[in-house]
Amino acid sequence: MTKKILILNGNPKSTSFCQQLANIYTVEAREYYEVKHFNLSEMAFNPILDSGYDADQDLEPDLQDFQKWILRAEHIVIFSPIWWGGLPAKLKGLFDRSFLPHFAFKYEQDNPQPTPLLIGKTARIVLTMDMPEPFLEEQARPVLEQLDKYTLQFSGIEKAATNLFGSMVSATQEEKQNWEKLVKSLGSQGI
Q1: How far apart are CA 122 and CA 76, in angstroms?
Q2: Across-strand partners of 125?
């Protein structure tokens, strides 16, 4: 049976280095695995969870497809820039709208601890940022806490492997090519 991989380019811009990296990973992974590639810039949905969990909010077709593939995928790869020390708002909205109770987790009876529903999946998070290399981990820490620990792991997905790339604004062509080679290798391995 072929490993199923969901790839998400979480940059809301239609062209970006995240897009380029996600495309490289996708091309390599498709040689060996079943792949679904989502570009946040092409997804149409309201990113605001208007009533929190107090009322149902109909899922747009792109969110329905995303949820279908979250359930189907064995491995999830997320490419995202860090903007202002956090995730782009539309990417945060994608998780707010799709990682819902009874899909990603559920509460049972009087237990205050939720039951995760997305167990048995692995993940990788690739973050780009404008910080120089000595500060990459410091800037990435709150994003990884939010996205990996309090979203993916909270929902049962194993702790994500991570790659941090920066500084984007001062990177040489050689540095970018090295990052691309690494992502190509990750894609061919499906990790």
Answers
A1: 6
A2: 78, 162
At residue 23, the 3 state secondary structure works out as helix
Which domain, by its residues, includes 40? 4-189
Which two structure tokens, joined as six digits, stand for 87?
């995730």
pLDDT score of 90: 98
Low-confidence ranges of the chain (pLDDT < 50): none
The number of helix segments (H) and strand segments (E) in the chain equals: 5, 7
Side chain identity at residue 120, one-letter code: G
Number of structural domains the chain divides into = 1
**What is the pairing mode between strands 105-106 and 115-116?**
antiparallel
Burial of 75 (0-12, 13-18, 19+ CB in 10 A): buried
Among residues 157, 120, 119, 161, which one has the least CA distance to residue 144? 161
How much is the pLDDT for 111? 86
Strands of 34-106 (E only): list them.
34-39, 75-81, 105-106
Residue type, 140: A
Which CATH number goes with the domain that contains 93? 3.40.50.360
CA separation for the pair 149, 65 (Å, rounded): 24
pTM: 0.97
Rounded to a whole number of angstroms, the distance between the first and last alpha carbons of the chain is 16
Cβ atoms 117, 106 nearer than 8 A: yes
Burial of 138 (0-12, 13-18, 19+ CB in 10 A): exposed
Residue 154 phi/psi, 5-degree rounding, is -55, -35
